[in-house]
Amino acid sequence: MQTAAFFAALLSIVLAYFYSTSSESVREVLASLVNPGNPTNTNNPVPSVASVTGIATTTISSLVNKAAATATSSSSLSSSEEGTVFAPIVLAEEMIVARTIVKAFKAIEKAEGAGAKVRRSVGTSQLKNFSPFLMLDHFSVGSEAGFPDHPHRGQETITYLLHGSIDHEDFAGNKGTIHPGDLQFMTAGRGIMHAEMPGKNGDGSPNVGLQLWVDLPKDLKFCEPRYRDLAAKEIPTVTTDNGKVFIKIISGTSHGVDSVRDLAYTPVWILDVTMKPGARLEQALPKGWNAFAYTLKGKAAFGANGEKRVGEFYNVVFEQEGDGVVAATDDNAEEDAHFIIIAGQPLDQPVIQYGPFVLNTEEQVYQAMLDYQTHSNGFERAKHWQSEIGKRMTGR
């Protein structure tokens, strides 16, 4: 296969994979290129690889021309990290009012790529653009699958590994491996190109974890990219309710214990909670933040009076009003309950997304496509770069 054709095909796979998370206005543009002159329903299924390959190989020039016509100058791609001012965190001194529940729904497992399975609970019609959260994937991926070289701009990703291992490598020379209980915080900023590839487990089991996409404030969209790995041994813990509740404080505060600081730009709390039978948890959360819980194992009841009982793989979405979250387990529960509480400060800004590019205007999305294609404005190092770990899947 010729080099140009190979990279066009690889780009088509990346575009197809990310299509389902794109903003409707951007999907309309892309679909119009595949089917010119036809009205577009943005709820249509992900286009075939052949269709997206057509965009990559024969009509990508249309996107580039559109980008060039609407692009902002390169001087607009700068941002000062000191320019972002977040509202102060306000916590209730005592848990007086428990947050009520907006909705609860089960994340359905779907095949994603070759050998991967994903339960997506944020970034679907059930819960889309729940600011600052863009996507939450509960993934299970074998060693034969993975995510070879692909770009990002404008968001942060947080990967929490539950089983196995995941290797990562980017065009800035960052590389490493995370293991169970470890996390990787990546800020894409103005542009990053990287690969994420699963390890091979001796027992043949898949690699399992969570990946959360978090929006960046508009004045940090074009900051320099960065990585922070957080090892399991670095995560503070606390035990409450006479030893019945165990909490890993990945980010935020729980019962007087603080997490490691400066992991992500956008203020986000992540708490990993395990509850034994007959346990009760009262967890304060910052006022006005959006919050949800995602259940991994067992059964738990959420709400002041335990009004919502859910099993594994449910997303429980809470109202902004209230002091925090209340959860409980039955005295006769057959197993521990394990869930993640995630909360974040909402961002008052539009979200325009095409796959791995998350910006505030359509023009910025077109600009991102142009920059990626022309290796400019943050993607300069992508021109001749190819990850070593990505070769496992591409065979090159």
UniProtKB/TrEMBL annotation:
Keyword Signal: yes
Family according to the record: Belongs to the pirin family.
Signal peptide (residue range): 1-23
Pfam families (alphabetical): Pirin (PF02678), Pirin_C (PF05726)
TM annotation in the entry: none
Protein name, UniProt field: Pirin N-terminal domain-containing protein
Organism: Tuber aestivum (summer truffle)
Gene3D superfamilies given in the database record: Jelly Rolls
Keywords, ordered alphabetically: Signal
Domain Pirin C-terminal: 271-377
Domain Pirin N-terminal: 116-214
